[in-house]
Specification:
Layout (H helix, E strand, L loop, with lengths): L3 E2 L3 E4 L6 H8 L14 H18 L3 E6 L5 E9 L10 E7 L8 H16 L4 E6 L4 H9 L3 E2 L5 E2 L11 E8 H10 L4
Antiparallel strand pairs: 1-2, 2-3, 3-4, 4-5, 6-9, 7-9, 8-9
Helix pairs in contact: 1-2
Length: 190
């Protein structure tokens, strides 16, 4: 499946026209506050192209997200395989990065919920994880709205961030397919 529709959004393969707005959000200090650094244009383009290559190859990754009403590019949301080693790997992460002008409208939750549905219904994954720095309260709130649970014993120091760096410590969240299905049955899902 290469596209996923939600009531307001389209999660779709990347287009050349997505590269400039994606580069702008990756160069925005507010968007990248909890990332180690801003991305240069060529890094941003390479990130988007890598996501697109995964979508073309296996049918999923972090999709480009656009508003259905206007077609405006919102950001990147989807699933990715965690490529570093940790106590909880191998695993698949649900992740999002939205342009600041699209914050506060529930788009991250809406798109990530669609990605979770894809993970559990289409891919039949046993669980999906997410993680961020403790101070990233906005993303943690999205994780909790999605039904992911903080698992303190799996909190970790990110191996790609130097020890002592303000972004080294990460909190770990997870949701199993059984937990996700229970939320669907009770209507607790977003």
């Amino acid at each position: 499946m290469s596209e996923i529709e939600t009531p307001r959004l389209l999660l779709r393969p990347w287009r050349e026209s997505d590269l400039a707005p994606f580069a702008r959000l990756n160069a925005d200090p507010a968007v990248m506050e909890f990332m180690p650094r801003l991305l240069r244009r060529e890094e941003s383009d390479a990130f988007a192209r890598a996501c697109q290559a995964q979508i073309a190859g296996r049918g999923w990754d972090r999709w480009a997200v656009a508003r259905r009403d206007s077609g405006d590019f919102v950001g990147a949301v989807g699933l990715s395989r965690v490529t570093f080693e940790a106590a909880f790997t191998p695993c698949t992460e649900v992740a999002w990065r939205l342009a600041r002008e699209h914050w506060g409208h529930g788009f991250a939750t809406e798109a990530a919920a669609a990605a979770l549905r894809h993970a559990f219904v289409e891919l039949e994954l046993p669980e999906v994880v997410s993680f961020t720095v403790p101070a990233n309260l906005r993303s943690r709130a999205v994780m909790e709205r999605l039904g992911l649970t903080h698992v303190p014993e799996n909190d970790f120091g990110h191996p790609r961030v130097p020890a002592g760096h303000r972004l080294h410590a990460h909190v770990f969240y997870r949701i199993t397919r059984a937990q996700w299905r229970a939320r669907q049955e009770t209507g607790a899902a977003e």
